[in-house]
Design a protein that fits this description.
The protein is of the alpha+beta class. 29% of the residues lie in helices and 31% in strands. The chain has a single domain, classed as Aminopeptidase. Strand 1 and strand 2 form a beta hairpin.
Amino acid sequence: MDLVATIITNHFKAFPDLWSGTVEEQLPYLKKFASHPQGLLTIVQIDDTFAGMLTSIPLSSNVYVMGAAHAQLLSHNLDPTKYFYYAEGAILPQFRRNGLLKEMFAAQEELMCAWGFEYVSFLSTFRPPNHPLRPAGYEDKDPMWSYFGFKKTDIKVRYHWPTIQLDETIKEDENESIFWHKELFTDSLGTERS
């Protein structure tokens, strides 16, 4: 669990999240996932080397990040109990672009379907194109999410977290996240629900 918390912490320090949290802060959050009967954690190892991980949980769970998203779905006449939620995912740079994320999605979504969920979702942190901490050559992730079948919605959720600033100081900022979702399929071949 410590390794997973370390990977997640480092991942979220980077743009666009710019979260300045610690492993110690991440561990209790992960333990809530681990204790949930439908909390999922997929870890991929290649030649005994950690390559990537993905967590997910029902959106109607009581993990703190879910509350605001839950309320926003209700305000848009969507049923949170039909949704699963991808929380954290990370693949180490040397293992990217070789299908690992697709495999992790497929494995978890098979279980989501078996449990009767109809949609899976996630939140992506929004930063404007001219953000001063946007790295040179940064590739926007929207095309990748669309490739995996997700649709960007107009649902926005705001959270406060300790955010890395241009001068490397930390400030408690309000950060905007955009809600993405897709309909789940009943099998790995993409057969839609009837």
